Amino acid sequence: MRVARCYCPQSRQTFSLLPDCLSSRLVGSLDEAEQVVVRVEASRSVEQAAASLRPDIELPGAVRWVRRRLKGVRAALVALVTLLPGELGAVAELHGLRELLGSERALVELREIAGIHLEALPRPLGFHPARARVRKSGQGLQHETGPDPPRAGGF
């Protein structure tokens, strides 16, 4: 799906208009990410879920694929249950939230419920950007100016 990307000249940044059904910073929809988490919760084994969900690739790659989705969804669920305890109960599991919300599309509904918190929630539910790597002081992106240092062996 093509996602609209706009430019704000005042802040000199671009932003996307992501539809509610798509995952943030992951390929696919929220429903697809939800199915992965539901399968892991049902099997209680990431490896079994990965083997059944991604038979087209080797198991280590499938496990990484599942864990990327699982990690983000679980972190978002913990954050939402903590932020909205009266609305979402006390257990941060997708199965329980689906029952509470009465929907098979819990992540899409959670995105709507938690609309004001989306910029702080992790992907794929929220829009929190990945943290920038912090460089140690003195490690710039540019080389020092001046002549090249002498080479070993005199060449």
Features:
single chain; 155 residues; mainly alpha; two-stranded antiparallel ribbon; 6 helices; 2 strands; 43% helix; 6% strand; extended
Write the layout of secondary structure elements.
Blueprint: E1 4-8, E2 13-17, H1 30-43, H2 46-53, H3 59-83, H4 85-88, H5 94-101, H6 106-113
Antiparallel strand pairs: 1-2
Write up this protein.
This protein has helices at 30-43, 46-53, 59-83, 85-88, 94-101, 106-113, and strands spanning 4-8, 13-17. A hairpin with a 4-residue loop joins strand 1 (4-8) and strand 2 (13-17). A two-stranded antiparallel sheet has the order 1-2. The protein is extended. With 155 residues, it is mainly alpha-helical. Helix 1 (30-43) packs across helix 2, helix 1 (30-43) crosses helix 3 (59-83) and helix 2 (46-53) packs across helix 3 (59-83). The model has no long low-confidence stretch (mean pLDDT 85). It is built from 6 helices and 2 strands. Helix content is 43%, strand content 6%.
